[in-house]
Write a structure and sequence with these properties.
The complex is a heterodimer. By secondary structure, chain A is mostly beta strands. Chain A has no helices and 10 strands. In chain A, strands 2, 4, 5, 8, 9 and 10 form a 6-stranded mixed beta sheet that branches. Chain A starts with a strand and ends with a strand. By secondary structure, chain B is an all-beta fold. Helix content of chain B is 0%, strand content 57%. Chain B has no helices and 11 strands. The chains are: A mainly beta, B mainly beta. At the A-B interface, strand 5 and strand 9 of A face strand 5, strand 9 and strand 10 of B.
Chain lengths: 117, 109
């Protein structure tokens, strides 16, 4: 597809279960970002991948959160032992170059709405 | 800490003009972005400012004053489809985007 694709679009899970969220970036984009969007708050940075460099994990809120990017393309965000406070929309974005580039535009997917019961 | 402030909600009339303000306090500055987000959809890029002044793009314009830590997004000839949230984001000294909570714009006929 032409844009960033995320799946599933909605996920309902029970407290304590693990969930995996998937992101397919735009083909050829070297950088990939995960954000969390909660009601009434700005997007919260989670993690950043750029090429073969070590990811910037500084935004991950706890060790229950992890992410990987295989083959420089698809990324999976995993949340272990989900808690109710994890309920939010998880957005993925990609950009053609790394975030230090001039006018680095990030292109977003529609997100995964996670509800933890 | 880092902070981006924008009004929570604004209402305007179809055909009118509206200005959405954004003030910021960040660790460094490497550009300011405006995105549009319709409910349940992906944020989409609108504009980018890194130097002071006005950037015009069709019905949308964006202004930046770095000395004042201030930007605004100006929407002219409002259409019903402009009803959306408008997100202001600043790229800080680490090139990380710091986001405001967004301004929900309601357009009335």
């Amino acid at each position: 597809g032409a844009g960033v694709s995320q799946s599933p679009s909605n996920k309902v899970t029970e407290k304590g279960k693990d969930v995996e969220l998937r992101c397919d970036p735009i083909s050829g984009h070297t950088a990939l970002y995960w954000y969390r969007q909660s009601l009434g708050q700005g997007l919260e940075f989670l993690i950043y991948f750029q090429g073969n460099s070590a990811p910037d994990k500084s935004g991950l809120p706890s060790d229950r959160f992890s992410a990987e990017r295989t083959g420089g393309s698809v990324s999976t965000l995993t949340i272990q032992r989900t808690q109710q406070e994890d309920s939010a929309v998880y957005l993925c974005a990609s950009s053609l170059a790394g975030r230090e580039g001039p006018k680095n535009i990030q292109y977003f997917g529609a997100g995964t709405r996670l509800s933890v019961l | 800490g880092q902070n981006i402030d924008q009004p929570t909600e604004m209402t305007a009339t179809e055909g009118a003009i509206v200005q959405i303000n954004c003030t910021y306090q960040t660790s460094g500055f490497n550009g300011l972005f405006w995105y549009q987000q319709h409910a349940g959809e992906a944020p989409t890029f609108l504009s980018y400012n890194v130097l002071d002044g006005l950037e015009e793009k069709g019905r949308f314009s964006s202004f930046l004053s770095r000395s004042k830590g201030y930007s605004y997004l100006l929407l002219k000839e409002l259409q019903m489809k402009d009803s959306a949230s408008y997100l202001c984001a600043v790229r800080d000294s680490n090139y990380q985007l710091i986001w405001g909570a967004g301004t929900k714009l309601i357009i009335k006929p």
